[in-house]
């Protein structure tokens, strides 16, 4: 496979919204709506306020809004903070095939950009869809068989900045050649590994992608050069991050099939590989006569990636709980809910939760699908209740409805802005394709 | 090997200049002097002026000087630009064991920082030496046997930001815990691959490391958290970039042996693996009666890495020539010199050079050392002259002298600042350990 970089750049430079099928546009709107809610959901959390303390000292120019704060900073740091906010509760979207969280880096970069220039909703939506498209295709290059990468890399960190550069570059009107350079510069920033999950840096890696992707497009716009084969060259992106890569995945069906259609929205604010187990345990907890205080032990059968990513039996705080299978299974059984309120420090340290987490035994079974889980709860009297979830909520065949997305949005947004304002900005999201000026119309509603 | 991250953080937080042996301090001064000259040498080149065009549009605050320009930008972008300037002619220093160019990211970050606060020369030198130390040790983790990494990664991009974070963090007074986080945040930015060599992005990758390493320390200073085992954890830095890594190399002899002593300064502005061949051909070209116009062909025997990194037979411009073995061998034979003037576009496109490059045949021989080369020039009359270089100029046993470094500095600095100013700032570099305020004293001489 040659000229992957050029093919992608040409596709991005030449595609207009008329080339995007209506269902794909609709999914782009849903992705943006889901993203913005998640950004408000995390905007007041300690990682953001700590980062803000550092950024305020840098005395940056007031160019774009920090969501949920009455404050503007420079474009790059606004992109960083707003993407970070959307990622840190692990409630953002997931491109399931590659476990990439695609919308954050792309949306945060172009929303910051749109505050400083007139960008129509149609152009914004097109840029968003194209950014997600290239981002997810490159994630496929690193993950779809026969590709073999290192699971330690944080996929959103590897591809998110490239998506941000594509979307920013589209709005800046880059031609094919400059788009090639934007792809290369952004790829040269690809970074981040999973060891920092469960710390403030969980959301930082996607945020860094948003910031640096925006920057890459700004450099390319001025004619800053990079390789013509940055993505596919022997010492380029695909070959350093996968051995072998699946280069065909970058361009097969380009413009025909859109990756945003394979993007899912989470019903629960935690690692997506935990979701089938939550469904199973909520189902058991909802059966008549269920009493969590009588549980003797819990036996889970999970798809192996669940343990690879979320085998954290004793989380110490909310950040660690986000990627703890045990925490969320225990929460589902004890509280019969699995929302943001069930992930806070007080819940993580609740003695009843600690005791429940220790009753959980997990077995990995490669015959299970990613969306599948089996759970059995054995009670002290020897009785048992089981659940077998084949397709968890939020998976592609059980996507959240628009109404569910709206509920998710409002529940998160009120953590940062008044309820009436939350409703107004949600409405603007649904109307995205018709907006005249995204920065003026949505931008005005971002601060409390 | 456990607690690598903590051991390194503790070492950095606790070490004072009194713990650094005098020869190591002296080498730190030489490294800084060599770096600053290289930064002036590249400051007016197109990659810097193109990047400046993009950065000027960002309307950043005037916090630190862009070397060689009458302009100040924010700290991060000053670090980016000044490191980029020092790297783009490939004239900067090289940690030979790992082919890292260590001083650029570290020096550019702390020089920018020092312009905004009082930093003594002694503190600056200590921070510089510690930054280089951690940076090169982590490069060793990825390269020294049994470590196996991917040669496509650009080592300075992987470790340079960590060095910059260490040095910045030392000047910001980070304690052990915050230094751990600074290491982790900086490691999460580790990025860059060699496909973009021979483009403007050659210097951009180290520059990005300088910028983001500085940023990492500023975040950690505010308490922004990362993993406690970011470097050694199973999904951390060492394990994603090498399989296996050599973790012992991070801490063996820490505080006893200093990596800056294994750092070399280039006599020629090109890929360091080309240097032994340049020496060999300069030697042949210097023999009595040598006439380049009579050359029939040139036969080179090289260490294999030379071809891995610099097998570029037909460079099209100065940026490609930097990493072209053929270009510099041809230049040594045709011009009997190999300086900045021999690397410009006009030389690359000189028909005599093009013809000479095509006469060169190369064989890789794994029995050769990195510093070794064999060259034979066969003339049209059938006669031949040979040279066998065992230790090339600039290698550790043939380090450039202070006088040679001074000559190299001045030749580069006059490309950006007046000669008298160049001499003055070179003098300040040699006096670094005694300076009261690096930002005021050296900073005042950075702009033309």
Structure description:
The structure is a homodimer of 448-residue chains. The first copy, chain A, is an alpha+beta fold and 448 residues long. Chain A has 2 domains: 4-265 and 399-445, 2-methylcitrate dehydratase PrpD; 272-393, 2-methylcitrate dehydratase PrpD (60s Ribosomal Protein L30, Chain: A), CATH 3.30.1330.120. Chain A has 19 helices and 8 strands. Chain A has helices at residues 4-14, 22-42, 46-57, 75-87, 103-114, 121-143, 155-171, 176-187, 201-221, 237-241, 275-285, 304-310, 318-321, 325-335, 345-348, 351-357, 402-413, 419-430, 438-441, and strands at residues 64-65, 72-73, 94-95, 263-264, 295-302, 360-364, 373-379, 384-389. In chain A, the strands form 3 sheets. Chain A has a 4-stranded mixed beta sheet. The longest helix of chain A has 23 residues, at 121-143. The N and C termini of chain A lie far apart (49 Å). The mean pLDDT of chain A is 96. Chains A and B meet through α3, α8, α9 and α10 of A and α3, α8, α9 and α10 of B.
């Amino acid at each position: 496979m040659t000229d992957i970089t050029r093919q992608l750049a040409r596709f991005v430079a030449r595609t207009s919204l008329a080339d995007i099928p209506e269902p794909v546009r609709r999914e782009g709107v849903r992705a943006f709506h889901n993203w913005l809610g998640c950004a408000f959901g995390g905007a007041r959390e300690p990682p953001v306020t700590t980062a803000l303390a550092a950024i305020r000292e840098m005395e940056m120019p007031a160019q774009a809004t920090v969501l949920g704060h009455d404050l503007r900073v420079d474009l790059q740091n606004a992109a960083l903070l707003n993407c970070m906010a959307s990622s840190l509760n692990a409630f953002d979207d997931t491109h399931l095939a590659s476990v990439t969280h695609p919308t954050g880096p792309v949306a945060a970069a172009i929303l910051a950009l749109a505050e400083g220039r007139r960008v129509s909703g149609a152009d914004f939506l097109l840029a968003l869809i194209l950014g997600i498209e290239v981002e997810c295709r490159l994630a496929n290059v690193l993950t779809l068989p026969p590709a073999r990468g290192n699971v330690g890399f944080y996929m959103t960190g590897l591809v998110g900045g490239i998506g941000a550069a594509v979307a920013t570059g589209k709005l800046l009107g880059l031609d094919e050649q400059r788009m090639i350079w934007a792809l290369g510069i952004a790829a040269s920033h690809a970074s981040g590994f999973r060891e920092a999950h469960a710390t403030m840096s969980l959301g930082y890696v996607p945020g860094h992608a948003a910031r640096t992707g925006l920057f890459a497009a700004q450099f390319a716009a001025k004619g800053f050069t990079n390789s013509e084969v940055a993505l596919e060259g022997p010492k380029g992106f695909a070959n350093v991050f996968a051995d072998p890569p699946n280069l065909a995945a970058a361009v097969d069906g380009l413009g025909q099939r859109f990756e945003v259609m394979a993007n899912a929205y989470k019903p629960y604010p935690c690692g997506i590989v935990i979701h089938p187990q939550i469904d199973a345990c909520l189902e058991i907890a909802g059966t008549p006569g269920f009493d969590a205080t009588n549980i003797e032990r819990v036996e889970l059968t999970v798809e192996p990636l669940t343990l690879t990513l979320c085998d954290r039996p004793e989380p110490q705080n909310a950040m660690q709980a986000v990627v703890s299978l045990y925490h969320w299974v225990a929460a589902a059984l004890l509280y019969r809910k699995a929302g943001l309120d069930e992930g806070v420090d007080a819940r993580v340290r609740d003695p009843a939760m600690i005791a429940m987490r220790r009753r959980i035994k997990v077995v990995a079974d490669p015959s299970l699908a990613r969306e599948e889980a089996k759970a059995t709860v054995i009670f002290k009297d020897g009785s048992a209740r089981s659940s077998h979830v084949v397709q968890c909520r939020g998976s592609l065949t059980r996507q959240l409805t628009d109404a569910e997305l709206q509920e998710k949005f409002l529940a998160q947004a009120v953590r940062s802005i008044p309820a009436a304002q939350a409703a107004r900005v949600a409405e603007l999201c649904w109307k995205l394709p018709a907006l005249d000026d995204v920065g003026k119309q949505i931008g005005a509603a971002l601060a409390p």
